[in-house]
Amino acid sequence: MKLLLRTGVGTNQWGNNSLFNLNSLLMILCVLILFVTVAMPMTMIIYGTFFYGFKLEWKIFLDVVLDPANITSMWNTIIIAFWVTTIGTVIGLFYAWLIGRSDIPFKGFMKTLFIIPYMFPPFIGAMAWGLLLAPQSGYLNKLYMSATGALEPLLNINSIWGIIFVEICYYFPFVFIQVVSALERMDPTLEESARIAGANQFYVIRRITLPLVLPAIASGAMLILISSLSHFGVPAILGFSQNIFTLPTKIYELINRSSGSFEGIRQGAALSVLLVIVVVAALWLQRKILKSGHYDIIRGKSMRPMVIQLRSFKIPLLGLCLGTLLFIVVAPLFIIFAVGMLKAYGLPLSLENMTLRNFEYVLFHSQMVRDAIGNSFVLAIMAAIISMFVGTMIAYVVVKVDVKGKSLLEILSLLPYSVPGIVLAIGVILMWSGAFYINLYNTIWIILIAYIARYVAFAMKSSSASLQQVHSSLEEASRSCGATYTESLIDITLPLIRPGMIAGFFLIFLPVMRELTTSVLLYGPFSRTLGVAIYSINSEGNTVQAAALSGVAIIIIMLGELTLRFITRERKG
Amino acid sequence: MAGVTVKNVTIAYGDKPIVRDVSFAVQDGECFAVLGPSACGKTTLARGICGFNKLNSGEIYIGDKLVVSKSQKVFIDPEKRDLGVVFQDYAVWPHMTVFENVRYPLKKRGVPKDEAKKRAMQAIDLVRMSPYADRLPSQLSGGQQQRVALARALVSSEKLLILDEPITNLDANLREEMRFEIKELQRKIAVTVIYITHDQGDAMAIADRIAIMDTDGRIRQIGDPETVYKSPQDSFVYKFIGLSNFLPIELQDNHLFVVDGEKKIPFPVKRPEYISKPQFWAASHPSELQIVKNGEGLPGTVNHVIFLGNTYEYRIQVGSYEVRVIQDSAEAMKTGIPVIGESCGINFDIVKFYEDVQEGRV
Questions:
Q1: CB contact, 8 Å: A490 with chain B?
Q2: Which uninterrupted H or E stretch holds A25?
Q3: Closest residue of B to A478, CA-based?
Q4: Which chain B residue has the Cα nearest residue A486?
Q5: Nearest by CB to A483, which of B54, B84, B108?
Q6: Would the pLDDT of A203 be above 90?
Q7: How far is Cα A61 from Cα A63, in angstroms, rounded to an integer?
């Protein structure tokens, strides 16, 4: 074995006859893992939709696609995604420019605050806004009606526009984060030379700054579009009561209603195919619209960027920023914790109605909640560790190894990026509930497999970014110093990409902790996750307990984010 | 110590040959420079010797040992070739201290711990980095990192060092200093060195012999620095080895003329014996030309006079050509500095003739 491991690309120059060197082994292993976790479930969806036994059959797909209810949900999905992407991008861009390029005060502080909604699980946000703006029971609506004597509520969050609003709140940071970092890395002399050449402020923004950050805007907007099209939590929480469905919630409803029968799953699979078609079409359309050159001028850390004087607009714009933050961050957080402390839902938010009983109950008395938290922890840690290693392995093969077929590997690993979680979940059900003599349905292992498929791309991106920074001369230097290929990997490459691997771990751990879309289809009686627990307590109408548990979840997630930031900051210094 | 023999080596990336049919033999303890314009394949050749690139044909011996041969299906892994390498970007491992970096090759070559420590410290001392032994590379300047890389290469092999543009990234003063230091070190420990560079100054200062590579990846000439400078084999070497003027010449009735479109300007130099064609080129180094004012020489007009400190550079317009002449400042002060617009003659005492001139990047 030692002999086998010694040879690798770069050393195995003439030895094409020895097939089983380390790199080929890695490559085969990567392909195998991705084939089982990603390619097979996707194939199973297509198979389940278009085949009955081994016979081609269009009927179920046509039935599902032509069903008016499903067509309505498709339009809802598209309308919601369109507005969320458009408005979310504009808002993200505006605040990114304000914080990245103007002389507005408290920049660092506000930059952090604007990232908070990104960490916030959107379905908890939806619950919070439901508590504030539900037509009859929402606290803001009640306040408005009692103050003005109006009989109609101020706003109805249980509507398409309500869903759009809540999704915008939690998705605009995608554009914000990308654009702020692009602005920070942009060479300010590019703008300065335009100014010197006689261009005015607005011309510079329009013709220099904007085109340069366009790739960042495009990638942020693409993230919003994919996320919104495949999003489950917000439309599920705000739309079900009004019979407003999107494709993901419709798929969930179909499968839930048929209580897991094969026919129901096949219908779900057929609808999934439709959802995938919509996603692919939307991505294609967006790429066509935002077709732009790639600029390499943004790189590295630059000097002080040119700052725009806001003058008399400074205070009003600062007010707008703080107002927005108060509205989208503070208000939902407040209502979650406040309602979580209420003795019963519907009581006025006054001190005498407050208690810690709900927190006590969810944390210490409910076996279901304790199991759910435990499951989520176990799943998050296992999914993060496994995905981290698999992702690093794939990244290594893609970045460092010169073998045929590695582009296939890259495509396979990045595929789940654009496949909605709910679709992946159906594929996993089709694959792992006995079709191949393995039945994992109703266990946490089926959820684990789905998580690995879904999140391996995160780890791969993180590791491949750090691998690209390990210049090959560092490895060659150790080879020339007498280290074998494997020794060089262990002594040089692995220690250098460790920070990337650790970041990859948290990039998976955190989303898994707050995950709902995939697990809501895969959970069984003993394999609830934290997200599922909150969701089901809320659907059962135990609003105060759901709010209390949401508060707990938010605290866990914030702690995780803080740890991640602490770790990545330490690495920089 | 070990010599290196490179026999008919060709290396290609895909279909594109980078190194073409290169052969040379480096003696034991010799400092051998491979000099060529950037992207000419010299780094590829060095990587072939190290074992990081495969050969398309040919073979390489280190000492008496055949390390790679396509036809005989021999390939020794880089770690078994027993050499030390300094890379262009130093490749000092950022997660190890200076000491750990330098000790690493000894550890891998199975040197006992105590001895490894002693030898690593000696090498660090040799490159004058002892005060920094416990620092991480991020706390070092470029020049210091370069020395760490050199120390690491030195302990890695006492036989053969391959230095790939090791001082290109340093500033001018540090480069001069490092040139000298590398040469000193090489003499002191009598190690064989293959020195890859695009800078003819570095090559001249350090090498016992120089091989000049052209943009096609072929070796044009091998020789000691003086020979290469005084007798360049062809116009490519001539151009590459220093500043140069090239004038097109035509032979008529045993007299030479500079061809300037329709015009022919008499070129007051004796007809060369070694040229058979009627049309050829005259090559000259600016520092080997003199300005004369007694009506002799190739007639021209002074276009520019540039003072460069220890030298003066003149641009002389001859027909539609501009000829560069460089004169020692002290001498110029004695003979009088030409005035712009003045007519003068250029004395071609030392001139070489070539039948053709290769265009291309130099």
A1: no
A2: helix A22-34
A3: B105
A4: B79
A5: B108
A6: no
A7: 5
User: Does A137 lie at the interface with B, CB-CB under 8 angstroms?
Assistant: no
Query: Cα–Cα distance between B74 and B54 in angstroms, integer?
Result: 11
In angstroms, the Cα distances linking A529 to A416, A515, B160 are 21, 8, 62
Residues on chain A touching B50 (C-beta within 8 angstroms)? 476, 480
Select the CATH number that applies to the domain covering A60-340 from these four: 2.60.40.3080, 3.20.20.80, 3.20.20.10, 1.10.3720.10: 1.10.3720.10
From B358, B353, B359, select the one nearest B251 (Cα to Cα).
B353
Residue A101's identity, in one-letter code, is R
- Give residue limits of the domains in chain A: 11-57+355-573, 60-340
ipTM of predicted assembly, 2 dp: 0.80
Residues 332-371 of A with CB under 8 A from B: none
Q: Could you check whether A11-57+355-573 and A60-340 share the same CATH topology?
A: yes
Q: Do A477 and B88 touch (CB under 8 A)?
A: no
Task: Find the mean pLDDT for residues A365-370.
Answer: 88
- Asked if B91 and A496 come within 8 Å (Cβ–Cβ), the reply is no
Q: Which residue of A has its CA nearest to B152?
A: A481
Residue A209: closest CA among A114, A101, A314, A321? A101
Cβ atoms of A41 and A453 closer than 8 Å: yes
Please report the sign of the dihedral spanned by the C-alpha atoms of residue A529, residue A531, residue A532, residue A536. Answer: positive
**B79/A484 CB distance under 8 A:** yes
Q: What is the pLDDT along chain B (362 residues), one digit of tens a residue?
A: 588 999 999 999 888 889 999 999 999 989 999 999 888 889 999 999 999 988 999 999 998 899 999 888 889 888 889 899 999 888 999 999 999 999 999 999 889 999 999 999 999 988 889 999 999 998 888 888 988 998 999 899 888 999 998 887 777 887 888 888 888 888 888 889 999 999 888 899 899 999 999 988 999 999 999 999 888 888 888 888 888 888 888 888 888 889 888 888 888 888 888 877 888 888 999 988 988 887 788 889 999 999 988 999 999 999 889 999 999 998 888 888 888 988 889 988 888 888 877 654 33
The CATH class, in words, for A11-57+355-573 is: mainly alpha
Residues linked to residue B193 through DSSP beta bridges, in sequence order = B31, B161
To the nearest whole Å, the CA of A11 is away from the closest chain B CA by: 6
**B-proximal residues of A, 366-405, CB under 8 Å:** none
pLDDT of A1 above 70: no
